[in-house]
From TrEMBL:
GO terms for cellular component: plasma membrane. It comes from Aurantimonas aggregata. PANTHER family: BRANCHED-CHAIN AMINO ACID TRANSPORT SYSTEM PERMEASE PROTEIN LIVH, HIGH-AFFINITY BRANCHED-CHAIN AMINO ACID TRANSPORT SYSTEM PERMEASE PROTEIN LIVH. It holds the Pfam family BPD_transp_2. It is a multi-pass membrane protein. This is Branched-chain amino acid ABC transporter permease.
Length: 306
């Protein structure tokens, strides 16, 4: 019984860490732009396909490097950078048109953008409609009590903690973070202080997309495969975690991710055939939070005087 509890606890921490990396991107973008970038999950899940494509292209040209951990690491880093740049390109081409538009217009546009990204992957990536094996880029395992713990799980948790801590440090301890917070609070006042909102928006999209890419890469490694439509479920869970915690709150996104991952893990462990019903319980939690505290756990209700 203790071993089962430890195993489920490990699953909860790993899933919560991965979901947090997706959710903080939603909260960061909403906090700065006041736009719900619903295709953030789809942008993030471009990263595993970029990494796979890069590995396959290099091996096809230089077969001798097949299986090299250095090659895999370089391809993962390339995927992070290119996914961050993709977020910037989409902000320039599409999302900036909706900065001052009604929220519903931006929501519909980003939903459509997500569909475009998924269909491009499905048709342009070789056999894109099929699942593709994705390596766990850290191998090996060790025992804790009677529970087998993979090094991949430990690396996923540590990387998530480091990424989120670095993001908090960036926002609170650096000049760029000060500018991001200034733009999020008052764009006009930021302009008067010689801060370019357009430049800050692009930096924010790069950061959010790259952090989301880390989460997508670890999720693909955790599942040992990747599909073009993974972004639908994981992106929706990441968005729901941000909503539960309070859109715009980074701490709320992390707490919401841990709550959703905990419920997900609990249902699969306790409820008969729980894997089939886990999303039912997860989104019942989301509905309950929206009914009783629409602003989220850490969100604040904004009162406007008219």
């Amino acid at each position: 019984m203790t071993d089962l509890l430890l195993q489920q606890l490990l699953n909860w921490i790993v899933l919560g860490s991965i979901y947090s990396l997706i959710a903080v991107g939603f909260s960061l973008l909403f906090g700065v732009l006041n736009i719900i970038h619903f295709s953030h999950g789809d942008v993030s899940f471009v990263a595993p396909f970029v990494a796979l494509g890069a590995v396959q292209a290099v091996i096809a040209s230089f077969p001798v490097v097949a299986g090299s951990p250095v090659l895999l690491l370089l391809c993962l880093l390339l995927a992070l950078v290119l996914t961050g740049l993709l977020g910037v390109v989409l902000e320039i081409l599409v999302i900036r048109r909706f900065r001052d538009a009604p929220v519903m217009m931006a929501l519909v546009a980003t939903v459509a953008l997500g569909i475009v990204l998924r269909e491009l992957i499905r048709h342009l990536f070789p056999n894109g409609s099929n699942p593709h094996s994705f390596p766990r880029f850290v191998s090996g395992e060790f025992m804790v009590g009677g529970v087998t713990v993979s090094w991949f799980s430990m690396v996923a948790v540590v990387c998530a903690i480091v990424a989120v801590a670095a993001l908090f440090a960036l926002l609170n301890k650096t000049r760029l973070g000060l500018h991001i917070r200034a733009v999020s609070q008052d764009r006009d006042a930021a302009r008067l202080m010689s801060i370019s909102p357009t430049r800050i928006f692009r930096f924010t999209f790069f950061i959010a997309s790259a952090v989301g890419a880390v989460g997508a890469l670890f999720f693909a490694g955790y599942a040992n495969l990747v599909r073009f439509d993974f972004s639908v479920e994981v992106g929706l869970i990441g968005f729901s975690a941000a909503v539960v915690g309070g859109l715009g709150s980074m701490a709320g996104a992390i707490v919401g991710s841990l709550l959703i991952a905990g419920l997900d893990t609990f249902v699969q462990a306790v409820v008969p055939n729980g894997a089939s019903y886990r999303l039912v319980f997860v989104f019942l939690l989301v509905i309950a939070v929206l009914v009783f505290k629409p602003s989220g756990i850490f969100g604040r209700t904004v009162v406007e005087k008219v």
